Amino acid sequence: MCDTHSEQINELAKALAAAQGELEPAEKNSTAAVGKEGKLKRKYADLTAMIDAVRKVLPKHGLSIAQIVLPSEGVAHVRTMLMHESGQWLASECRMPYDNTGSKNAIQSMGSAITYARRYSLSALVGVVADDDDDGEGAWRRDDDREQPRRNVPEPAPQPKPERVDLAALAKELSEVRDCAGFVACYNRHRITEGHPDYEAVKNMFGKKRREIEAKAEAEAGTPPEFVPLDAVIAAFEAAETVTALKEAATRLGIPENHPDSGAIYAAYRERQRKIEAQDKECAA
Question: Where along the chain do its domains lie?
Fold first, then answer.
């Protein structure tokens, strides 16, 4: 079975073509500083603007979007699915590396990478433009990177060697960390930048501890965070009074393809759709 699309996509392709004819470019509501010293400003549409742009159009054509965060070492791994009411689907996966510059703590780095992965994969799958083109940025970089005349500048004083990390003491401290808050506090106390002689060892130690905390949280929760309970899904479907509201509920819940109750959820959706359509016919009679 292909992991990028369902066996048939004829109905989905027809609906997507119609939807793309109505889609407006996402509002570029954010600005980022890029290039050396942040001299160049780039406008882009953030994730909220992207979702707002597609939700105005996709449900009218029987289309919905679901985004699933998959486990992956060292990167944010997001699978975005475009689903049609016929059951046909398309999928796109995006992997975004975490920010290891030291400018963010581990949780912030993870959240930022997931947001970027969701935004780029959604843009590519649906065809909504999220960024300005980079012609200006490329030209600026070429000019800025041009070799400059040498000046008689004194050589900088040699930098002192960085203080080595007591790995044994760090391991003992990490063994006493029990939750996410403790992990972040410990990480901030021992944060070092890439290039430090102990960088890889410290990164691996924190990575192992993060996985332990995540596994413990999932075990205590009993149900993976991305799986909405079946009774909550059915309650949301039953609350919908129109087919459009039903589709919006399904989109809002973001039910992943590997949900343990996917069969029951699909059946509940179809049953509620049938009841709404029957009520509409009675009202029209």
Answer: 9-126, 167-221, 230-284
Q: Which residues, including other chains, have CB under 8 Å from residue 255's CB and lie 6 or more apart?
A: 66, 228, 233, 262, 265
Query: Which of 29-38, 66-75, 257-266, 270-279: highest mean pLDDT?
Result: 270-279
Q: Rounded to whole angstroms, how far apart are CA atoms 87 and 63?
A: 10
Torsion, Cα 160 165 166 171, to 10 degrees, reads 180
- The pTM assigned to this predicted structure is 0.44
Mean residue pLDDT of the chain comes to: 80
Paired sense of beta strands 75-84 and 63-70, if any: antiparallel
Q: What are phi and psi of 168, to 5 degrees?
A: -65, -45
Lowest mean pLDDT among 66-70, 98-102, 111-115, 149-153: 149-153
Terminal-residue alpha carbon distance, the chain: 45
CATH 3.30.2010 for the 9-126 domain, yes or no: no
Distance CA(66)–CA(50), nearest Å, equals 13
Confidence grade of residue 141 (pLDDT, cut at 50, 70, 90): very low
**Cα separation values, 122 from 98, 113, 186, 235, 252, Å:** 19, 14, 35, 28, 15
What's the Cα-to-Cα distance from 128 to each of 40, 65, 248, rounded to whole Å? 23, 13, 19
- 139 pLDDT more than 50: no
Report the alpha-carbon distance of residue 65 to residue 84 in Å, rounded.
9
Q: What is the largest CA-CA distance in the chain?
A: 90
Alpha helices in the chain (DSSP H): 10-20, 47-55, 106-126, 135-144, 167-175, 180-189, 199-221, 230-239, 243-253, 262-284
For residue 248, give the nearest of 86, 92, 37, 57 by alpha carbon: 57
